[in-house]
Design brief:
It is a single chain. With 50 residues, the chain is mainly alpha-helical. Helix content is 38%, strand content 0%. The chain is built from two helices and no strands. It has helices at 18-32, 43-46.
Length: 50
Amino acid sequence: MSGIVVEVSFTPLPEDDDFVLDQLTEELAEDLRDAGEVSRPAAAARRPPS
């Protein structure tokens, strides 16, 4: 069985709401689980320090 790794990243804007972004990210992860294994990076890796 073959596999691929897909990384989806985005740059949040200052006015973006963290809760909403997390909800959208989780919804995307749920949709992608139909295609295979999905994992999210640690919170510290998702957002660069301010």
